[in-house]
Write a structure and sequence with these properties.
The complex is a heterodimer of chains A (121) and B (301).
Chain A (H helix, E strand, L loop, with lengths): L7 H19 L10 E8 L2 E3 L2 E4 L5 E7 L5 E5 L4 E5 L4 E6 L5 E7 L2 E10 L1
Parallel strand pairs in A: 1-4, 3-9
Antiparallel strand pairs in A: 1-2, 4-7, 5-6, 5-8, 8-9
Chain B lengths: L1 H29 L15 E4 L12 E11 L5 E16 L2 E15 L7 E18 L6 E14 L6 E18 L3 E15 L5 E18 L2 E14 L5 E18 L2 E14 L15 E10 L1
Antiparallel strand pairs in B: 2-3, 2-13, 3-4, 4-5, 5-6, 6-7, 7-8, 8-9, 9-10, 10-11, 11-12, 12-13
Classes of the chains: A alpha+beta (121), B mainly beta (301).
């Protein structure tokens, strides 16, 4: 038997200190609060309409997604880092950070063949 | 004995050189395939789970991730040690990801010089990880994420002896897309200071420095194979005070997005070169193991 006795309270306290240090180092200092540019898109028959949308660069975006199908969909994008489940016959708003010019893919995670592109310019 | 190890190391190098050549050449043939079948991927686990990609996940995403890392082979006898972290992963913003979870360790050690025999499975501490985007991929061709991982363990990760151990793993995790949606390069830089109280109540500090380079190729949609190369240096003291040994690990990686909300990532690496001051061996089997492996599953919910 090893002579060292564990002290769970002090161990946990030290661990929490390390964890708080991690949070302090890593939390971003804050978002720049600029006016969101709004973009509308619909899904019908498991297709985005239109399949390509565009928005301005360097401004946060609000993508308003209307699901006109009779089943739920999940708007998702790896490069935009967003996802949102939208029930059948309803709509949802997806907020996206300010982006650099480029093309960003998005898709319906429940119907992977349903895909579209956001062009930021 | 030494020359036999060197021959084995050369054979392994030849195998991995052939594998890396295959990975580098196959995209040329693959270009002819239907490009529409391949879509962008989250890069965090595509290089196995020794080297990490820069992705920090999707805002609001929650996942359960059992992640196992195992080490095999020391100087003699039989040695197999593993640790499974049962992680809860959450992405609160588009810039940051948090992971928390307890760890469970497994020890199967017998006849290894310098280590007590041990057969044990035990709850062994708690780990957290905070990851934050430093550089986004677009417009930069390289994306970089900073990861800070505080750890507490109640068992020594090598021997299984009872200890009080705190570590802080700090990593820069970078990647670049070499061929759109097909071929990725990953790069990690590691600094991990640790402090451990074992017998006699004395705190001992140590630190590890590491650098890695990895390639991952999406061979068919949602399946990637790759190669991971790590160079690790171990020191006594928290700030690289006294060098105790180094090792080069090389091995294949595998990534499979099994379903939209389920993935697996695996790696197997062998120590192909190493050095321990004062020891005439082609490997450092005191500070590092001969082989190491990782297996991660992710269940998003």
């Amino acid at each position: 038997m090893d002579p060292v006795a564990l002290t769970p309270v002090s161990s946990m306290r030290a661990f929490l200190r390390l964890a708080l240090f991690g949070i302090a180092v890593l939390f971003p200092s804050g978002y720049a609060k600029a006016q969101n540019a709004s973009i509308a898109i619909s899904v019908k028959d498991h297709r985005f309409q239109p399949a390509q949308i565009s928005g301005p660069a360097n401004r946060p975006l609000s993508i308003r997604v209307r699901n006109l199908d009779s089943t739920a969909m999940e708007f998702e994008s790896v490069s935009l880092r967003v996802e949102k489940v939208i029930a059948a016959g309803s709509e949802g708003v997806v907020n996206v950070r300010a982006l650099a010019p480029g093309r960003y893919e998005f898709f319906d995670d429940f119907h992977q063949e349903t895909r579209g592109t956001l062009v930021v310019e | 004995m030494v020359s036999h190890s060197r021959c084995a190391a050369k054979r392994r190098c030849a195998f991995f050189a052939a594998l890396s050549a295959a990975i580098l050449v196959s995209p040329l043939a693959a270009r002819a395939q239907d490009a529409d079948a391949f879509h962008e991927v989250e890069t965090k686990y595509i290089f196995g789970s020794f080297t990490f990609g820069s992705s920090t996940g999707i805002e609001g995403e929650k996942a359960f991730e059992p992640e196992t890392k195992a080490n095999f082979g020391k100087g003699g006898g039989h040695y197999g040690v593993g640790q499974t972290v049962l992680e809860y992963e959450y992405t609160p913003t588009q810039y940051m990801q948090i992971e928390l979870g307890p760890s469970v360790s497994f020890y199967n050690i017998g006849g290894v010089p310098g280590l007590d025999d041990r057969n044990l499975a035990t709850l062994n501490g708690f780990e957290a990880e905070f990851r934050s985007v430093l550089i986004d991929r677009n417009p930069s061709p390289i994306a970089v994420t900073l990861a800070v991982e505080p750890e507490f363990h109640s068992r020594d990760e090598t021997s299984g002896a009872k200890v009080v151990n705190y570590g802080l793993e700090i990593k820069l995790e970078a990647d670049a897309e070499l061929i759109k949606n097909r071929l990725y390069w990953g790069f990690n830089l590691l600094y991990e200071p640790e402090t451990t109280r074992a017998d006699f109540g004395v705190w001992e500090r140590e630190s590890t420095f590491g650098v890695s380079s990895a390639l991952a190729l999406q061979i068919i949609p949602n399946v990637m194979i790759g190669l991971d190369l790590w160079y690790l240096r171990h020191y006594d003291g928290a700030a690289f005070n006294s060098f105790t040994g180094d090792a080069v690990y090389l091995g294949p990686t595998f990534y499979w997005k099994i379903a939209p909300k389920v993935l697996m990532s695996a790696a197997w690496e062998a120590q192909v070169a190493g050095h321990e001051p004062g020891v005439s061996s082609a490997l450092d089997l005191t500070d590092f193991s001969h082989h190491r492996a990782s297996l991660l599953l992710e269940f998003e919910f």
